[in-house]
Amino acid sequence: MTDPETPLERLGVAMARMQDHGRAALPKARLADVLAALDAPRRSSRPFLAAFMATAAAVCVLALVLLRFREDGSAVVAGEPAADPVAMMGAYVTAPADEELVIEFASGGELRLHPGGRARVERADADEARVALVSGTATVTVPVDLATPWQVSAGPFTVSCATSTFTIAWRPDEASFEVQVKQGGITVLGPMAGETHALETGQSLRMDLHDTAAVPTSQPAPSPSVPTAVLPTVSEASPPELEPPRRTTRSAKPEAARSTAPTPTSPPEAAAEPSWQQLAQLGRYRDALTEAERIGFADLVGTLPAADLLRLADTARFARNSGRAQKALTELRRRFPDAPEAGTAGYMLGRIAFDLAADYDRAMHWFSTYLDEHPEGPLAKEALGRLMESQERAGRASEAQATARRYLARHPEGPHADLAHRLGAP
Amino acid sequence: MTAHARRSGVATGTLLSTARFLEEDEAFLHALQSGHRGAAAAFFERHADHVERVLVRVLGVDAEIPDLVQEVFLRALRGIGDFRGGPDKLRGWTTRIAVFTARGCIRRRRARWWLRSIAPEELPEPQADDASPELAHAAAGALRLLHRLPVDERIAFSLRYLEEMELREIAEACDTSLATIKRRLARAQARIQRLAARDATLSSWLQGGDG
Hints:
CATH class of the largest domain in chain A: Mainly Beta
Structural class of chain B: mainly alpha
Strand content of chain A: 15-25%
CATH architecture of the largest domain in chain A: Sandwich
CATH topology of the largest domain in chain A: Jelly Rolls
CATH topology of the largest domain in chain B: Rna Polymerase Sigma Factor, Chain: A
Shape of chain A: globular
Helix content of chain B: 55-70%
Keywords (chain A): Membrane, Transmembrane, Transmembrane helix
Oligomer: heterodimer
Region (Disordered) (chain A): 214-275
Transmembrane segments (chain A): 48-67
CATH class of the largest domain in chain B: Mainly Alpha
Radius of gyration of chain B: 21 Å
Number of strands of chain B: 1
Protein name (chain A): FecR domain-containing protein
Largest sheet of chain B: none
Mean pLDDT of chain B: 77
Distance between the termini of chain B: 49 Å
Largest sheet of chain A: 11 strands, mixed
CATH architecture of the largest domain in chain B: Orthogonal Bundle
Radius of gyration of chain A: 27 Å
Strand content of chain B: under 5%
Organism (chain A): Nannocystis punicea
Number of strands of chain A: 11
């Protein structure tokens, strides 16, 4: 369309400008992160994945070709800031079979991906550096003066550190994990009955999820400061260069280690590629939501049982994605209107409207809905208090006062009693 | 903080950049259909703004827009293997998916309107900063009226008058004929004229007022 000439055309332009003026910036980084997950190992049941697998070899070749293209004058020179930092974010990189690939962070930290290894940078900003080791071995160096915390995930394990050098290996096909600390300290969180292991210089940890045992790989450390009692494995000298652990070494496991080893709660396949539930259980809510998106969020909300829908909504809520949380909850109420979870979902919709959207009218609607449906429900006290709070914030003073009186009559010592008194209730 | 990759032992670095894709459409489409991760990122970079704009034009300013943008790209990437057009058709194909997604969203909402405490037409539209008061008033009123149009008429009207697309592009985006789009636009205009009768400013504007 050329310059607007008719009143309707001019009106349309004004309407569009009004929309543009009011719309919020698109959270491109978050969306790109979700799309990046499409490159994760696909489930064979999805039709489009067959094509992906069939062209995998061609893709590898293309990737290598691109790598070589970047060696011309326009390439990013090591040590310089990336010309397009977004390009790396979320991208999967695979080290050549005979060379290391070094992923450098502008702050000075680096992840050295050993030959054949595969990884993805999930986040690299002032608040956090997060890398997922998909397979293979990597050496991570986080400098002393770096204030940014690092997280390296490998399968269901997450290694957190501030200042350290460590080598981490993950073999998804065998569900084997191993980490060795060369310098500094790290924390390992994994499917170890909720345990977190702190490792220091010279110590290492090895887990084989197929065999359910933590495997010591070396002798106790000489340092008296090392709390050996909590250490699954300890090494004496500088650990040798790690290669992906082999299952053949399992025969060497001491019975003591075997007896104290955690039992995985999922089959090996799930351990190799953690489900969204497992990731959520580990507290990796954004990863869990990304995984849920990858396998099809719409499919999940249409098929999951009520309890799992609540869990999915919680996952989305903790990942600060209120839209997805609301979708899971509204689907729960639509599909299971008579289930107890439907009431909880109504209450949670109120919480989301209140906490995440500051939409107090909508919050009032949902808290009232919960109270209408479950006047004696387990969340009734909280819902009534929240209703009062929502009314107050929405500027509905008389309604808030009426609710305050109602609240004090039923819960004179409740957590919202102070607010009720402040609102003028006797 | 940023990150980039280089191969150990080489003087110059290496990076799986999306920039190259932006320059090479044929290679880009091939990489996209082959499932190359960098291509998906480039695809998103190239079309995200357009997809978002189409969704906003049809649905209005809405908190669900980011989720819907994501949905469009997930659909597109799942269907890219079946895409048979050339690189120059990719934008139109993406627009079609965006329109399809927006249509589904409108219908879904109408089916469960009772779940919303505030109906879309009651939501205040933002104020444009540089329109005359009369035009701003008329535009705000017209945006509210859009929500009352039948879905297909609303889409046609939005793409034509807000997004300023050519009729043929709209027909392609809606996967229908040019004649059908013309009919939908005529019906939408007539309906808006009728609905605008209660709003003196809007009615006056539509009849040739000068705002």
